[in-house]
TrEMBL record, chains A, B:
It comes from Amycolatopsis pithecellobii. It comes from the Bacteria. The keyword Nucleus does not apply. GO terms for biological process: negative regulation of DNA-templated transcription. It holds the Pfam family IclR_C. This is Helix-turn-helix domain-containing protein.
């Protein structure tokens, strides 16, 4: 077998995890052929690993033959610390904000060089967003992302700038110097804005949830239709974020 | 190595998954020695598999040297179908119920022969329960469990009876015949009760969330202090469950 090393156990582990890695928010259900193609594994290997994962409960087979993540992995995932204390502290505040605004409410944490959405509340009346629980957002183009970035170390901004700030809309800040200035403003005011920088027709405002050590644990944000809407909602989102930080200890 | 078969790949996969399996609600953080002991693996094997999982992001190391589930597994787990559509449909109703009652609100699905809690809302004022998201409850002793059991096939009751109905309190129904009669009552009324059958000093009421095919998808429950409280709340929980079923399609 090509690529097989002298420690076959490691290789098998990596292959098994590679099968899990092919599933994401954009690809929640895949055929065997798709799993093999996306993981770079031979079909026979992918089939065997899928069977292992199905027997364990980590994958389920749909009636149309596709596979998706099973409840066993969900159950294990609930043990991750990010989701437990923080989310439970945040949910009551998020529902208060939702009741007061009827807009999209998002709770995100820093995950690598992106913002990971760990909770959201929305309704049919709110501005449509593609953000789902478990989905990722760019740090430089979103309110929650800027709130996380502003209170993280300078190295993170450096590595984002080195990788290039992707232009999402004509309003996205793509110059590192301009972004650094915007982040200094966020640190001063305690709130971060995005005016159509991620999606045309949508604006967002967010506030950091800081830990006792001063580090940023999460960011709470609202996505609404207009700049004037999010400007008006800034005090509410900041108040809620401070409440969550106090409650989460 | 003892127990090694002629298909080492399968064995490695099973060992890797066995490492994940040792973590649960009661054991969210474990030392290397504990992981080895609980999985039945040699310490050297457990160490190697933990390293693989850490490199991937599935496990994290705490400052005290213990390991816990990482955000990578949480992210993948959010793709499980049980948590996506159903939970999003249910959350607004659960918050309405919570606002109206200030009691524990639980959403559960059938998982094997137990009820798995996939969402809960609670407060300091509510009666204390040990139920956590990702935690499991016995079917025969809880409101949500009886609601799931009453609308499942007869085989499930049979296998529960064969395994024995564990006595949780002096009020637990442990005779299969009495349980079957109680379940018939649940099917008639559309609500299921538990009066101190799970925990002394706590009562619960629950209603099934049925799918378009008539099968039970989930159960919505309230845990409160007294029998009179849950009797009064039965119409509210049933109404919310019907609303969720309609919304979830």
């Amino acid at each position: 077998m090509a690529g097989r090393t002298s420690t076959p156990g490691q290789t098998v582990s990596r292959r098994l995890l590679a099968v899990l890695d092919v599933f994401d928010v954009a690809h929640p259900a895949l055929t065997l052929t798709e799993v093999a193609a996306r993981s770079g594994l031979p079909v026979s290997t992918a089939r065997r690993l899928i069977t292992e994962l199905r027997n364990w409960g980590g994958l389920e087979r749909l009636d149309d033959g596709r596979y998706r993540i099973g409840i066993r992995l969900w159950t294990i995932g609930t043990l991750a610390p990010q989701q437990r204390g923080l989310r439970e502290a945040a949910l009551p505040y998020m529902h208060d904000l939702f009741q007061a605004t009827q807009e999209n409410i998002q709770l995100t944490v820093l995950e690598g060089t992106q913002a990971l959405c760990i909770e959201k509340i929305s309704s049919n009346k709110a501005v449509p967003t593609q953000t789902q629980i478990g989905g990722r957002l760019p740090l430089h183009a979103t309110g929650v992302g800027k709130a996380l970035l502003a209170f993280s170390g300078k190295e993170l901004l450096g590595s984002l700038a080195a990788a290039g700030l992707t232009r999402m809309t004509p309003h996205t800040i793509t110059q590192p110097g301009r972004l650094a200035a915007a982040l200094a403003e966020v640190r001063k005011s305690g709130v971060a804005y995005s005016y159509e920088e991620m999606t045309l027709g949508a604006a967002s405002v967010a506030a950091p949830i800081l830990g006792l050590d001063g580090g940023v644990r999460a960011a709470l944000g609202i996505v609404a239709h207009s700049r004037s809407a999010v400007d008006r909602l800034a005090p509410a989102v900041r108040t809620a974020a401070l409440g969550i930080a106090r409650w989460a200890g």
